[in-house]
Amino acid sequence: MENTLGLEIIEVVEQAAIASAKWMGKGEKNTADQVAVEAMRERMNKIYMRGRIVIGEGERDDAPMLYIGEEVGICTQEDAKSYCNPDELIEIDIAVDPCEGTNLVAYGQNGSMAVLAIAEKGGLFAAPDFYMKKLAAPPAAKGKVDINKSATENLKILAECLDRSIEELVVVVMKRERHDDLIKEIREAGARVRLISDGDVSAAISCAFAGTNIHALMGIGAAPEGVISAAAMRCLGGHFQGQLIYDPAVVKTGLIGESRESNLERLKSMNINDPDKVYDVDELASGETVLFAACGITPGVLMEGVRFFHKGARTQSLVISSQSKTARFVDTIHMFDQPQYIQLR
Ligand code: VTB
Fold it and tell me: Which of 1, 66, 191, 225 is the right S-S partner for 56, CB 3.0 to 4.6 Å?
């Protein structure tokens, strides 16, 4: 799977990032998202594969493109049946977030990226559009920190695993009212908090890379983003746990007329019978082969953002594979108009 898809998915996230970056700082988050979706879908449909979107832009009725259940790839198109041999290709599931951090792009802030994860059919948890309590930590703390423990306890464990003092630890938390107590607790325990306005996928993955000075992600973000983060953490050997939040007293999902009961009903209808279950990384991204790709739209901790120059752009992407056990940073110069020569900038 990796051999055929590895390079192509870099281009998928690159194209989405370039399209979205053109809207950087323009204050129009919906357009920044829409152009990324279109670019991602167009490039994806040129790949020789049989793909199905499991995490996407929404339900079919609400999202015209990259909706949940949409089939993508050349071999899912009617006119390609003549030269595609479906028996030759495994079916794959794809989770996409073409513009992770639309506000960040719209307001020219750091940390947005185009991102996707792939696994063989059934290999990614089809998370409902709910919130998720998340805990991400470096590989050294995998299975030792626990989302059921308090932030204070987890910081003690983390400090031990990383052989540091708690004061040296940095925890990323999304700046939201729902996290006020959590932020207070982390500070009281002695650790430092890096508040972000959006983009917790990038924050989660950063935990798995030494040198980012990010040691944990704590708090509540969106569940689909949790699955995408888990796919990367699965490949990187990092810690990731997620627990769905269905109580509107904690955070409202935004569904019309929602209540605790109606949310529970909705989860049941999706065959989620234990709503309090804590999912670990291997359950959120259970596939035998998992691939992850991201490309910076605006600059971030792990990747540069898109930089435009005369008739071209330069991007930085990250491709992670559970199969080859690699995390590749790919620096690409894109020439829009056949220049005479390539200049490194
Ligand atoms: C979360 C987070 C994402 O949007 O979904 C957030 O996981 C929205 O949270 O990374 P609120 O509803 O509390 O604003 C992102 O930050 C960007 O998609």
Answer: 66
Give the number of the atom of ligand 1 that is nearest the alpha carbon of residue 200: 10
Compute the distance from residue 322 Cα to the ligand 1 centre, in Å: 26
Return the HEC string of the chain.
CHHHHHHHHHHHHHHHHHHHHCCCCCCCHHHHHHHHHHHHHHHHCCCCCEEEEEECCCCCCCCCCCCCCCEECHHHCHHHCCCCCHHHCCEEEEEEEEEECHHHHHCCCCCCEEEEEEEECCCCCCCCCCEEEEEEECHHHCCCCCCCCCHHHHHHHHHHHHCCCHHHCEEEEECCHHHHHHHHHHHHHCCEEEEECCCHHHHHHHCCCCCCCCCEEEEEEEHHHHHHHHHHHHHHCCEEEEEEECCCCCCCCCCCCCCHHHHHHHHHHCCCCCCCCEEEHHHHCCCCCEEEEEEECCCCCCCCCCEEECCEEEEEEEEEECCCCEEEEEEEEEECCCCCCCCCC
Which residue's CA is the nearest one to ligand 1's atom 11? Answer: 221
Label residue 104 by pLDDT band (50, 70, 90): very high
pLDDT reported for residue 255: 75
Query: Which protein residues are within 6 Å of ligand 1, measured from CB?
Result: 100-101, 176, 198-201, 221-222, 225
Q: How confident is residue 90, by pLDDT bands cut at 50, 70 and 90?
A: confident
| Residues 135-175 pLDDT 10s | 999 999 999 999 999 999 999 999 999 999 999 999 999 99
Query: Which domains can be identified in the chain, with CATH numbers?
Result: 2-123+288-335 (3.30.540.10), 131-284 (3.40.190.90)
- Name the pLDDT band for 222 (thresholds 50, 70, 90): very high
For residue 226, report the distance from its CA to the centre of ligand 1, in Å: 10
Residue 328 contacts residue 308 (beta carbons within 8 Å)? no
pLDDT at 57: 93
